Amino acid sequence: MIRAYKFLLRPTVRQAQALAEMLRDHCSLYNAALQERRDAYRHVSKTTVRYGMQSAQLKEIRAFDPERQGRWSFSSQQATLRRLDKAFAAFFRRVTSGAVPGYPRFRGVNWFDTVDFPKDGDGCRWDSTPHDPVTRVRFQGVGHVRVNQHRPVGGKVKTISVKREGKRWYVVLTAEQVAPEPLPATGSVAGIDLGIANFLADSNGGFVPNPRHGRRAAQKLQAAQQALSRFPRCKAKDRTANHQRAVDKVAQLHGKVRRRRLDHAHKTALGLVRAHDFIAHEDLKIRNMSKAPASKPDPDQQGAFLPNGAGAKAGLNRSIRDAGWGVFLTILHAKAESAGREVIAVDPRNTSRTCPQCGHTAKENRPTQEKFHCVACGHHAHADTVAASNVLRAGLVHRHANPA
Predict the structure, then answer these.
(1) pLDDT in tens, 260-310
(2) For residues 352 and 386, is the Cβ–Cβ distance under 8 A?
(3) Which helix (H) or strand (E) holds 331?
(4) 114 near 67, Cβ under 8 Å?
(5) Is 256 exposed, middle or buried (0-12, 13-18, 19+ CB in 10 A)?
(6) What is the DSSP string of 79-143?
(7) I want to staple 99 with a disulfide (CB 3.0 to 4.6 A). Which of 94, 251, 311, 363 is the partner?
(8) What one-character DSSP code corresponds to residue 247?
(9) Structure pTM?
């Protein structure tokens, strides 16, 4: 199996400058390759330029511009061209399927934050000083950069990436390793229901409160964004020192919220995986749930629109995004696979309206957001606990119908 590791880099001032130059030059290569594809299609009889043709030009490009392109790894530049090729492949796939195409766009320096090295030892070397007690990674053109390695890396390192997040630099590794030993069986099963009031409710009556990281940081973010809005929009190279500090402040606050949300998701998923052998959850279409409502034209007045509840829906959408359900479910599936646990997604329809005792389904069974009271048999409980119980029942049915 392939496992990813992410570690914080501790570059010197000169190394950080070299890393920024590496990103800038790879961004320039990406944009030049995109421009070549556009020009070839528009002006040369709709000719399609592919990855192989652009990769063959790299030797000439490196010889023509040795200071900006020649000093970086050849393989990392090929990976940048593959990145553009994947963007075009995804574009044509969306065109074929009838989705919104999303033509590949040019990247600004601040929007190109990752450089990939397809193979350890080719332009980069993980733990390149094995006799040094401090772990270091070596990048061609940068040197040996100190790594804050907070946990050991198991298996053989396959690929290495360097990534910039705000003012911080990270190294991301993928390592091939044998499947780990599964955790001991607990004999416990659980269904979970994700929500807004409570982040998670399980079928055993437990609740995980919603930390609402975005809402807690909203006041500071609002102040930082208002301070940023006082500066005119301009390119990064034209910003003043105060303007750049305002940009960095907003990025720092957003990064802090993101890291807190990830930490909460990892800890919650780990607790579930350690406690239960089988976990069922709702198959939520989060993107559809957080869409803005469609406008309602007024039939009696041209150019006017009827109220569509967009204001209330915007608040709900903000809460859904703040909860981070999609990130949590991705982490839960990954941890369950490593631990030998089973996770199943089930249809979420009517899970909070169906009585777990008699099976009666009705809208009236849920008079309030938290209260469930069956109008047929009188069973009452917390609505989220009822939903989690129904999710578990549906998951067990699916499990027995499709044994592994």
Answers:
(1) 999 999 999 999 999 999 999 999 888 888 888 888 888 888 888 888 888
(2) yes
(3) helix 325-339
(4) no
(5) middle
(6) HHHHHHHHHHHHHHHHHHHTS---------GGG--EEEESSTTSSEEET--TTSSS-EEEETTTE
(7) 94
(8) H
(9) 0.85
